[in-house]
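Data card: per-record layout.
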Amino acid sequence: MVAANHKESFAIKFSIGGAVVMAIMGLLAAIFGNSMSLLFDSLNTILGIAISTAGLRISHLLKIKYSKRFNFGYYSFEPLFVLANGLLMLVLAVSLFITSVQTILDGGRKVELPIVTSYLVFSITVCCVEAIVLRRLSKKVKSELVHTESINWLFDTLTSLVVLGAFLLSIPLKHTSYRYLVPYLDPGITIVLIICIIYQPIKLIKSGSFDLLRMAPSSKRMGEIKEKLMDQREKYGYSDIKILAAKAGRTTCVEVICLYHKNFEITTIDKLDTLRKKIKEEVENEFENLEVTVTFNTLKK
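The structure for this 301-residue chain is written out next.
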């Protein structure tokens, strides 16, 4: 667990470091390249740094089980972060869409091609490396925070690729009868890109909202937990079980209600606590990222 937390912390710091480099380089390229799209991308990156910093703080909070103000822990902070990130991505995408439309109506924009293309090649390289590394780390630590960061970098990679393609296409077009289209290439293809990938922030918003509403995880996972416990019913003496669950980020809070016949005897509280502890361990040792509570009730006929 400690190693996983360390990897998660490293992943978020790695993302923040890359974002700082990209923000600085992007602002310089936007100023000297006379590119509004690069300026917008740089502002997007700066906002991403703020979100990543918040994500790092959340990562530390998740290591704390509970506090006086948050008696049930900080699990909801993670889906809140995912929701905020999705909303921000959506707002930026819509803003970029509107800006691109306005640019087309204004007759396009002339940019300094050598500066812009050099930066975009650099951007694609850095963003691609960040996306791959964070994607692999998210699978190892099973972290929604790191997974969200990897999605952001993939988003940036695709954006840079499309914009670079648009600018490179302007080179041969300048020598044809279609040279009047050159100023419209960048905003035009950017609009197409937004339409193609708008589902991603919507997906994040949906995921974060469902987790904040404490919706149950997939029935498949709950079925696996119940099957595991039902295989142990002779060992622990219950006749049936009922499972209630709510997913909050990477953590699934599970209440296992063990149903016993009325004639089942428990002689002491210590034995009851021992039984509860064993059932809890039975589930948590088998499945990852579960916070399990065990209660007992009488089986109703």
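Known properties of this structure: The chain is about 70% helix and 10% strand. Strands lie at 240-248, 251-260, 290-298.

See the next section for split statistics.
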